[in-house]
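From: lab user (bench 3)
To: helpdesk
Subject: output format question, protein + magnesium ion

Hello, I'm new to running complex predictions and I'm not sure whether the block I got back is the full result or only part of it. Here's what I submitted:
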Amino acid sequence: MGELIRISNLSKSFADTTVLQSLDMQVNSGEIVAIIGSSGSGKSTLVRCIAGLESVSGGEILLDGEAVVNTASTYGKVGMVFQNFNLFPHFTVGENISKPLQTILKMKGDIAAEKAKILLDKVHILDKFEQYPNSLSGGQKQRLAIARALAMEPEIIIFDEPTSSLDPELAHEVFETISDLAKEGQTMLIVTHQINAIRRFATRIVFLNKGKIEVEGTPDYIFHQSDNHNLQQFLKQVDFADI
Amino acid sequence: MTNLDFTTLLPYINLLPAAIAITLQVGLGGFILAIVLAIVVGSLRTRKLNWVVHLVLTAYVEFFRGTPLLVQLFVVYYGLPSFGIRIEPMIAAIVTMGLNSGAYLSEVVRASILSVDRGQYEAAAMLGYNSMQTISQIILPQALRIAVPTFMNGFSSIIKETSLISVLPVIELTKLGNQIYAKTYHPFEIYITMAIIYFVMTYSVTFLAKWLERRLSVWVN
Ligand SMILES: Nc1ncnc2c1ncn2[C@@H]1O[C@H](COP(=O)(O)OP(=O)(O)OP(=O)(O)O)[C@@H](O)[C@H]1O
Ligand SMILES: [Mg+2]
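Helpdesk reply: Thanks, we reran it on our side. This is the complete output you should expect:
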């Protein structure tokens, strides 16, 4: 498995608050890495830096060996699924997928629509093709967002708390979709508080604390072996919240 | 109290269509120019600009919002010829109305653009949209949807404000009214008729606006 992302000595500050400090991390193709940590620990900031949505203050992020400086360095390679979906409300469900294919990949309209149908079928919302996103449930919206990201055939998909604004049943639907992608070998980086949902398929879990990687390892290591105090405190809290 | 006599207007009724046509031409021409200006200026003013461009655009918007339309008409039609720029009265009217309304509507476009969620830019950027594609295909369609009601109000205002161009050598509705008045001395009959014609025009715009809004609102949350 090839190395896809290498982060060396990354630091990131906003004005005078340091959010990430001298952070090192790698992601190989085929891995499913979950990032956990308490609120404010820098999870979003880390993945947004990787996506090119935030500039870094120090160190570097290499994607396929090339430095990430902005979204122009990552598009086509990194797909992003946001907590609040960020679907395009003025496009139909089908167009949310086909329009970017036409605009960015210069695909013909009918071919783009065909591809949209295949992807919508895959996330089980093909029947919504002609509707607008405002008529979808939260879970359907997020599955559309996943399909839209998949359309660009990215090397990695980053999820930033994809289920945090959803009810538990809807969150379950979304994790089923993510689990399907895992079976297909899609490389993913998933920030989530719902750690029980991802422990089945995450190949590695990274615990972030105060802008640093405190512990990382397999789910088994994270849940059963590590005796890191901060991690154990954290797990106690979310276990409680996650029921 | 005089007796109302609308029949005194009958000999002049054949002049009405031309006057209405001029009012509509100036109204529509000014409105189209205003929309184009509003979208271009409004979009530009949401971005970081070269200071000269920034200064020019700000001066344009503030000047046209801060001075009376009537004075602007005088400046364009009577003032510019002093610099050798002579403009047809119809063109002067359309350009001035367009510049004036464009200044107001550009602020509406700007506010509408700023009200579109930042996440829309991020989603577009992650898919590979460049900044031109993002603004034209993702942001503006959403912003303009928000701006449509105000745009249509702007159209009504322009139609009403065309009465000011009666100060130029153009025979639109109000000027025609003045001329008929000079011949018949039946001011009430004349001006109430003109008022009703203006009202029918602006009221139709209201209907058009409602229809447009309904069509555009299918996707609104
Ligand atoms: N644009 C910004 N400007 C200033 N400070 C920011 C900005 N974005 C994040 N921060 C700060 O950086 C810190 C880490 O934020 P971040 O969103 O990365 O945390 P997180 O781990 O994702 O938290 P959560 O679980 O609540 O989403 C916080 O203290 C936050 O206030
Ligand atoms: Mg976050």
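A quick orientation on your result: Chain A touches chain B at residues 51-53, 71, 74-76, 78-80, 82, 84, 86-91, 99-100, 103-104, 132-134, 148-149, 152 (CB under 8 Å). Let us know if anything else is unclear.
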